[in-house]
Write a structure and sequence with these properties.
With about 525 residues, this protein is α/β, with parallel strands linked by helices. The chain is about 35% helix and about 20% strand.
Length: about 525
């Protein structure tokens, strides 16, 4: 009996729902195995930090050189628009170069040396510690960021910086963009004198399962839905040898607007909220999905401003028609709940588009378990829920029921933000939302995640499955593990740990900065 042919992978135009071209076929189990084994064999080639830095900088350069083609391909498959994608490409190449700088600096190796001290009680042996790469990493691309959180994105860049080869599972919403970017990364590897196995690409749902189960995969990074991410997380944990799974799954990103803030700048807050919740057609992982706003006249003015701003937002295209259907179904189910109103009704803007809107509900409806719990779940698209509260107790009751989030935002009055409000409301709210999120925003909006050393993009479950960040320099730590050498003969030590520090690394020796 003839074997079934591999399923084709199509590039689809989300503006029309029509197929553009076949760009690949779904990877078989044997092809996934070959990709992982090639990655495993390439580990030694990434051992030199200088080579890794060269790879990352060349990848950034090639992406910049091919920028027009990359943006055109991504726009054709995501409808995100050249303006947004130009910014995303710049973020992606900046990220690659930032990790190259980090690799050259070497501080991420966290070298610590404690020399032998026989006079101690008990005596201390010679201990020399640093971090080494885990091994091949599986990266699962995101739908909403076809560059910055996909093939050439932060997971890939940080894994390569750590010295880990990467096998990327392409997202089905942008397979042509994925193929183009993977080809550029492989070319960068070749120009850096590295083998093809340093970066590989596979397509297909089953390929993603096969990848996380492969015994040579040492860790995984994922950005996507709670359902998909949890299935892969469980598969990673169920392996005979479980592996770290760093997943970003879902986030409501609550916003608390105090009465004083609404009284002082209702119109500004309403317009800002509208811009944040509709940015990218509401398809950002840090979109504010739940807003606690006060009852009364200041809150009414805020809603009037929000209504006007959202009403002026044009209909947009979601990343694919499956997401569009899920958005419309989700809006319908939420709008049908008792005491839920829709000052601006989100829905179908046209045959292939959606229109932005928001719902309102009394905060008391969310303070206890019931059918309104649906409003505490993320709805992907241009919608937010505004819960009107009567007092601080209702704010606390709702916040106490929220799961983990990537972000939480406070809009505070001038005195509250300065710590001069007497009642201490600003400080109390800050403490409450800090327990809920990995990034707390005050008098701003959560959309936009700066690539910076101090950034943290993560949060309590289900926002992420670990305490690590996927954005910023410390993202590299996900793909490393510490090892310490005790009383090891100097000739056998890695160069990073030798007494004369031949690599010039920043190190701590006897619990002090070396040379300090």
């Amino acid at each position: 009996m003839a074997a079934a042919s591999a399923a084709p992978v199509w590039s689809v135009d989300p503006r029309t729902g029509k197929r553009r071209e076949q760009v690949a076929v779904e990877a078989t189990a044997d092809e996934v195995d070959a990709a992982v084994r090639a990655a495993h064999a390439a580990r030694g080639a990434l051992a030199e930090r200088a080579v890794r830095a060269t790879l990352l900088r060349r990848a950034a350069g090639l992406l910049d050189e091919a920028g027009e083609a990359v943006i055109e391909a991504a726009d054709a498959e995501t409808a995100l628009g050249p303006g947004r994608l130009t910014g995303e490409l710049g973020r992606t190449t900046y990220q690659l170069r930032a990790f190259a700088d980090l690799v050259e600096d070497g501080a991420f190796l966290d070298v610590r040396i404690d020399r032998a001290d026989p006079a101690r009680t008990p005596p201390r042996p010679d201990l020399r510690r640093y971090k080494i790469p885990l091994g091949p990493v599986a990266v699962y691309s995101a739908s909403n960021f076809p560059l910055a959180f996909s093939v050439p994105g932060g997971d890939t860049a940080s894994a390569l910086a750590a010295g880990c080869p990467v096998v990327v599972k392409a997202h089905p919403d942008h397979p042509a963009t994925s193929e183009l970017c993977a080809a550029l990364l492989r070319r960068a590897a070749a120009e850096a004198g590295l083998p093809d196995g340093v970066v590989s690409l596979v397509h297909g749902f089953q390929a993603g399962i096969d990848l996380v189960r492969h015994p040579l995969i040492a860790a995984a990074g994922f950005t996507g839905s709670v359902r998909g991410g949890r299935a892969l997380y469980d598969a990673a944990a169920a392996r005979p040898h479980p592996i770290p799974f760093h997943g970003e799954l879902g986030s409501l990103n609550p916003v608390v607007i105090t009465e004083a803030a609404a009284d002082e700048r209702a119109e500004q807050i309403g317009a800002g909220l509208a811009g944040s919740m509709t940015l990218g057609v509401g398809q950002f992982c840090v979109k504010p999905g739940l807003v606690l706003a006060p009852d009364g006249e200041p809150g009414d003015r805020l809603l009037k401003s929000l209504t006007a701003a959202v009403s002026d937002t044009e209909a947009g295209v979601l990343l694919d028609h499956r997401m569009r259907r899920a958005f419309l179904d989700g809006v319908g189910a939420r709008a049908a709940l008792p005491d839920v109103a829709a000052p601006v009704t989100p829905g179908a803007g046209g045959e292939h588009t959606v229109s932005a809107g928001f719902l309102t509900v009394p905060a008391a409806r969310l303070a206890t378990e019931g059918p309104h719990d649906l409003l505490l779940e993320e709805c992907f698209g241009p919608i937010t829920v505004v819960a009107r509260y009567a007092d601080e107790a209702e704010i606390g009751a709702v916040l106490a029921r929220l799961p983990g989030n990537l972000t939480a935002t406070l809009q505070l009055g001038e005195a509250e933000g300065a710590g001069n409000d007497g009642a201490g409301l600003g400080a109390r709210l800050l403490a409450e939302v800090t327990a809920l999120a990995g990034r707390v925003v005050v008098n701003g909006w959560p959309t936009g995640v700066a690539v910076a050393p101090a950034q943290h993009h993560g949060g309590p479950y289900p926002a992420t499955t670990s305490t690590a960040t996927s954005v910023g320099g410390t993202a590299v730590e996900r793909w490393l593990r510490p090892v310490v050498y005790q009383d090891t003969p100097p000739a056998l030590l890695p160069p990073e740990l030798r007494e004369d520090n031949p690599l010039g690394l920043p190190r701590r020796v006897d619990d002090r900065p070396e040379g300090g």
